[in-house]
Amino acid sequence: MNNLELTIYKLIAREVEIHEFEQWVYSEKSLEDLLNSEEYLSLISLSYKQPSSLYEAEKILKRYIDVGKYYDWYLRRVLQKIIEHPNDVHKYIEQCYDMYCDGYSFLDNLGLGYGLAITVPPSKYNAGTWDKLESPEQKMLIEGFYPDVLNEAEKVIRWLDTKKIILTGHDGTYQGVQYSDSREPEEKEPTGYKVATPTKKWWKLW
To answer: What angle do CA 94, 51, 93 make, to 5 degrees?
Structure first.
């Protein structure tokens, strides 16, 4: 991945400050070769004092990257954070639930088995949201996920590495991200949650 791709990825993920991005636009010589003259003029003419400028810049630059590779890059970063277990790891675990809802169906074990428990803590905690949990309860909830949640993150990374899951883009609708899936049937079986199917499907945390 080159610096140009990385900067565009960070732009799409909104992980770049406006003033930093503005300076990059003015100094990155490869943009003149990448863009046509009209696009380049539009990019350097944006009013970077306005937050909307990042959205406008994204519209210009996004077409020059492989969107599937962007989603692969973004997912790997979330999974790596779960493996590294930083103090704010709950954000990344919960994000797996958000991504599951956005079409990453192969994140069912991480999203439904762990991420959903951050969004809606188990009933034994008597709290409706993560923020309403006491600090010791937050720690207890997270520590109870390990090492299983780490193993799940590593498993998804292996699927990406071996091309069993290949992210291809986003359909632009509520159905979300698109991908090809060549996993074996047993690899698709739930391990982080239970599925009961006597009359209809529903999910229950372990």
So the answer is: 5
77 and 170 fall within a common domain? yes
Domain count, the chain: 2
- State the pTM of this model: 0.88
| b (16+ CB within 10 A) / e for 61-84 | beeebebbebbbbbbeebbebbee
Residue 4 contacts residue 28 (beta carbons within 8 Å): yes
User: Residue 25 sits in which domain range?
Assistant: 3-64
Check residue 194 and give its pLDDT.
Answer: 66
Please indicate, yes or no, whether residues 178 and 95 belong to a single structural domain of this protein.
yes
- What are the residues whose beta carbons fall under 8 Å from the beta carbon of 128, sequence distance 6 or more? 120, 121
38 and 76 in a common domain:
no
Token pair listed for 23: 């300076």
